[in-house]
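Worked example

This section walks through a single chain of length 641. The input is the sequence exactly as stored; nothing has been trimmed or padded.
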Amino acid sequence: MTNIQEAWQSVLSQLQIDLPRASFETWVRDTEVMSLERNVLTISARNAYAKDWLESRLTSTAQELLIGVLNQSVSIQFVVQDSADEELESDDDEEEAEQDVAIEAVQWLDYDKIVQPHKQVVVKGYLRRLGMEIGPKAIWLYIGFHQAAWRVHAKGRESGMALHSHDVMRFSGLSFGAFWRLLRHKGIQSELGGLVQRVDPAHERKYHRGRDGRPHRIPIRYRVCMTPRLTRADATAIYSRIRVLLDRGTPILNALQELLAAEDVMELLTPGESANPNIPFDTVMDMARLETGGVLDHQVDHLAQELHRRIINSLGDIHITHYFISETIKSFNLTPAQAWLVTVARDMAYLNSRTGERREVVTFKEGYREMAALIGSKRYKTVQTWLNPHWSKEQRGGDLTRFLIEVESPESNTYPDLRVENMSRSFRVLLDEPLDANGRNKAGANGTNRVDADGSNSRTQMEGLLDANGSNMVVANGTALNSFKHPLNTDKKNTSTTQHALKAEWAVPQYWELETLLGQNDVHPKVQRELLEVQASVHAFVSWVLYVASPQSGNLSDPLGYAISRLREHSLREARGVFRQFADLPPAELLMLIDSIPQSAYAMPVQVDHPLASAWKKAMGANNHTLPAVRQILFGQGTSE
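Given that input, the structure is written out below as tokens.
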């Protein structure tokens, strides 16, 4: 325990240097080591507020520092100081400890129900600088791989855990086709150097024999750097400063100490005299290895890591909601560049994340040119086109004016239309996620209209309103909109063959939710808890239900039971082939396909206009008597006839 106490004191000493004084003294200083069991270090916090603050902001940083000090894999959990005593007291009453606790969340805002702002992807703010070099497409790929790797790391397995490609794609903000096209693109692969690296050769395919006796492809291995590399310009600037000190006869250890002593680390990144610009350094550790002949002692390696960490942490963290990545980008047809510009603008707008102060206006000192540079582009007119409402015919991708509204800049005395290229521009940033179909009107807690991004309240634009329970949206003519998933790929006509689907759409959920599906099918509470605790995939559940209903499943006859058994075996593995595509459809579209297949051989099929209609008929057959059971499982309803 003594070694652990000393290690934690070493971590606290480093955190005292890195954190603002007020934050350290308020939240971190009074932490104490409780125990180390099975490579899990338990740290006590002074109260519940401190525990929440430490968990959300310091877990990964403290773990990295502790691993460096102990030279072993250690994870950290924070508890309240009194929690240990409470656990000891509860152990005396075994019967009390076995009782379940039923908790029901009430009085939530509709916005919080749908967006779930607490579910966030957190990446280093340094990606703002890195994005200017490698571009937004590579950045979004890195975010997807980074989040997938973090999930592996969080389970205590740093390598060897196979994930489905959907787990990476989910947080990349890219469509299926764009994800694989960019991942195989030679230019993108080059930009991802030092961030994401494919370990297996591209031309090599390895297989192993599965339990079914058939060959199965072995997962392709990727190596993901959890801490991003330096930009080439920043690496050159740092190495130039190191070389200047070394040329004066300063030892490498003292040179790193001198750079670490800089009050503002960003000053070290200003371009200086170039030294060996052709050497592609990824980290400060690479520079130290070069100067020491490839051998680093512990002290030099520690200082090099500290300098690299200070540079990467200099711009704080970027918080991106899961909803923005999985829903907003698709719903508003944002290109990777547009999505990254919105993300960067939101990050720049939050001037004080520690106190929660919100600043919704951000100023780009160099106008369109600065905005273009932030997305790695030299074409400032592209950004100008996105944000000029009069150039709608020239726009590509989504309407960016739903997220960024230009306001009068206090630093400019000219009219906005006369300010071009690098003149200063200010924008009001929509910090919350838009919930309705056109992105302008957000429903409040009571279903009333909220202000637009520019602060106005335009009821003439009220094309969609959210019901009080967040389940339905209706446009002015009374038809329903499915806006929490991507929009329909085709314009569905309200004909005699589709009227029954439209009438039933009011009961269709906007998105799949595993807890709801398990509850409406009376799955045993113990099984429900088991699946929810491991965060089983709701899309995997839907895909297996559909698979059992297809002729391809053979003699399987229990869609619900089989789907649950497969989830308990592997919480994220989906059915293969087109069933995965069917499960990814919005519930309303899937219901339309289910109702298009008749139950008996003599009934007439319903013609539907959908891109997957042909694949659906081929997979499910010309008639299918199992689909009513599927309808009951997924929608809580029997046949629509």
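What to look for: The longest helix spans residues 136-154.
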